């Protein structure tokens, strides 16, 4: 009875509420888009809250050329691609080893990995900063002579942080796969590596796709580690660089809005292309924000 | 996550292969497969976490390794009794948690429940509420700054206060900026919670609802007595996420004003002590350890539930 009532009852109240919420939800983004489309001159003359004057894409062009967005986005790619690749490679190996082999340490290790991902990053910040700063490296490798101000510092820390999360998700996924699949290969003489690479990994494709999508967005959105480790502005990934733009163009909100939208566009593209995987990833494993 | 994958897995997993039946090549392969990720995890997560505890009992300028001095509990003593932003930060973290738990999370649940039925346009609404989840908290801070601007922002203009003395500098005024930042954080958190609950609601057996309906339960009773308890695994994840997000909260306030002037949070105080001119590693570490100790509660709570029935 209650279920039929639920579907028949007119839902005007619900729609009104959801519409109001949607407008509130979109307002900050639409406002940023509107601001970005207007030249600084127009808004100086008419005010930001106004209609009229010119509308064009000049702010986007200025952000791209003057503020180095091309560089920042390139930096983001340099950091995101290897991080996601190595995270999935290492975590799938680890997940395989802890789910397919009976070993006293497999559950404790899995717990340690999962717990590691749940720690606030701030807890690791001081020692990692000190280690990276004091690690002497040849100058051909790093112009700072240490791991500070290198992409590698950000990549390896993100990698270490995310491996725990991906291992946890993949281990759950692999546990759900029938053991019969690898039993047959074992009888045929396939070794551990072969069973991992040729049988289990292909079966994990949906989980790997979901995790890859999720991790691309996580790493791209990471603000904290580059802020801590990267000292020269032109090496920052775009999410962290936006902070500098904010300071640099303090009163030019048009440029800031354009920069914010440029920063947002890659995540939107990833989301639109891989939407299904992204939502699957979020619900597959959700301990990370 | 555990919710959807663990339950069937448990029934199906058979005893796994014991280690001793493996060949030498297999053992080498396994050693690498376990060894490399574990080494990464130990060196870059657990060793630094332990080192933070160690450093919190020292005095160090962060430069010369041989000039680390033992300090006993002096850092903690200083933080608790003298360090001005500490207690405000604790209070703000508690308010942050109460706000997320009391407003943002229930709002996400409400949206999920409303969008779960056969509502026209459900997908469009979902996408709208979901967009902020893809945006980093740092970028959220920037976007909302445009919205909150004193004279040029949308909010003051809509309220009609822009350009008048009544205009509020939402991110600048220490009386309101915490609320303004929490609203911006809610923008993201509610969408996140909504997606998780939408997945959770789909997983609830429809027979449960029907049984409740036959027993004469109304919509509210069905939800709170049957559907909500049936989503227990998701509820646990949501509780943990909400607490952890609150403890991690940093990006948004750091983008606004580096976490000062009314926006002090523990996560931001750690960073303030590590970067910049006055590097006081001991204080930063002690703050980090306080954060660690508080985090252990939800972490252990979560782990015991996620791994509680493992062999």
UniProtKB/TrEMBL annotation, chain A:
Residues 73-274 form the ABC transmembrane type-1 domain. The chain crosses the membrane at residues 12-34, 77-97, 109-131, 151-174, 195-220, 253-274. Keywords: Cell membrane, Membrane, Sugar transport, Transmembrane, Transmembrane helix, Transport. It is a multi-pass membrane protein. Its main location: membrane. GO terms for biological process: transmembrane transport. It comes from the Bacteria. GO terms for cellular component: plasma membrane. It is found in: Cell membrane. Belongs to the binding-protein-dependent transport system permease family. This is Multiple sugar transport system permease protein. The lineage of its organism: Bacteria, Bacillati, Actinomycetota, Actinomycetes, Propionibacteriales.
TrEMBL record, chain B:
GO terms for cellular component: plasma membrane. It is a multi-pass membrane protein. The keyword Mitochondrion does not apply. Pfam families: BPD_transp_1 (PF00528). GO terms for biological process: transmembrane transport. CDD domains: TM_PBP2. It is found in: Cell membrane. Keywords: Cell membrane, Membrane, Sugar transport, Transmembrane, Transmembrane helix, Transport. It comes from the Bacteria. The keyword Cell membrane applies. Residues 90-302 form the ABC transmembrane type-1 domain. The chain crosses the membrane at residues 28-51, 94-115, 127-147, 178-199, 280-303. Belongs to the binding-protein-dependent transport system permease family. This is Multiple sugar transport system permease protein/raffinose/stachyose/melibiose transport system permease protein. It comes from Naumannella cuiyingiana.
């Amino acid at each position: 009875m209650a279920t039929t009532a639920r579907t028949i009852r007119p839902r005007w109240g619900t729609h009104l509420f959801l519409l109001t919420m949607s407008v509130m939800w979109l307002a900050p983004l639409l406002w940023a888009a509107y601001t970005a489309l207007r030249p600084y001159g127009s808004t100086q003359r008419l005010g930001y809250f106004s209609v009229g004057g010119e509308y064009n894409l000049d702010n986007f062009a200025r952000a791209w050329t003057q503020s180095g967005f091309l560089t920042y986005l390139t930096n983001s790619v340099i950091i995101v691609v290897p991080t996601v690749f190595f995270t999935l490679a290492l975590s799938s190996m680890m997940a395989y080893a802890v789910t397919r082999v009976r070993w006293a340490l497999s559950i404790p290790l899995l717990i340690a990995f999962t717990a590691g991902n749940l720690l606030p990053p701030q807890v690791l910040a001081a020692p990692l900063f000190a280690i990276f700063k004091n690690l002497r490296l040849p100058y051909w490798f790093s112009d700072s002579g240490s791991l500070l101000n290198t992409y590698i510092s950000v990549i390896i820390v993100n990698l270490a942080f995310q491996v725990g999360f991906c291992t946890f998700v993949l281990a759950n996924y692999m546990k759900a796969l029938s053991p019969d699949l690898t039993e047959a290969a074992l009888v045929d003489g396939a070794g551990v590596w072969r069973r991992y690479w040729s049988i289990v990994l292909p079966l994990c494709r949906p989980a790997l796709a979901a995790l890859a999508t999720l991790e691309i967005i996580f790493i791209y959105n990471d603000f904290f580690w580059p802020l801590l480790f990267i000292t020269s502005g032109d090496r920052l990934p775009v999410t962290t660089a936006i902070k500098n733009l904010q300071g640099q163009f303090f009163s030019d909100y048009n440029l800031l809005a354009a920069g914010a939208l440029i920063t947002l566009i890659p995540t939107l593209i990833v989301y639109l292309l891989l939407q299904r995987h992204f939502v699957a990833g979020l619900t597959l494993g959700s301990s990370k924000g | 996550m555990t919710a959807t994958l663990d339950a069937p897995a448990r029934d199906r997993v058979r005893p796994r292969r014991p280690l001793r039946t493996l060949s030498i090549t297999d053992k080498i392969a396994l050693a690498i497969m376990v060894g490399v990720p574990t080494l990464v995890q130990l060196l870059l997560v657990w060793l630094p976490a332990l080192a933070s505890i160690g450093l919190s009992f020292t005095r160090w300028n962060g430069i010369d390794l041989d000039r680390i001095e033992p300090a006993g509990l002096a850092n903690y003593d200083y933080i608790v009794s003298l360090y001005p932003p500490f207690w405000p930060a604790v209070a703000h973290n508690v308010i942050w948690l109460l706000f997320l738990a009391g407003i943002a999370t229930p709002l996400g649940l409400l949206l999920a429940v409303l969008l779960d039925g056969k509502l026209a346009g459900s997908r469009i609404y979902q996408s709208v509420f979901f967009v902020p989840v893809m945006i980093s908290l740092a970028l959220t801070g920037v976007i909302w700054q445009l919205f909150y601007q004193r004279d040029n922002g949308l909010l003051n203009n809509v309220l009609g206060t822009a350009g008048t003395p009544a205009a509020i500098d939402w991110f600048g005024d220490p009386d309101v900026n915490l609320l303004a930042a929490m609203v911006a954080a809610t923008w993201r958190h509610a969408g996140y919670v909504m997606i998780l609950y939408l997945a959770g609601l789909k997983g609830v057996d429809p027979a449960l609802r029907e049984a409740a309906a036959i027993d004469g339960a109304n919509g509210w009773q069905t939800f709170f007595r049957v559907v909500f308890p049936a989503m227990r695994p998701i509820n646990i994840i949501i509780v943990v996420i909400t607490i952890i997000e609150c403890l991690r909260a940093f990006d948004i306030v750091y983008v606004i004003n580096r976490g000062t002037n009314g926006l002090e949070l523990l996560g931001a105080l750690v960073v303030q002590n590590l970067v910049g001119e006055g590097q006081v590693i001991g204080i930063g570490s002690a703050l980090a350890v306080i954060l660690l100790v508080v985090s252990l509660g939800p972490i252990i709570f979560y782990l015991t539930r996620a791994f509680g029935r493992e062999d």
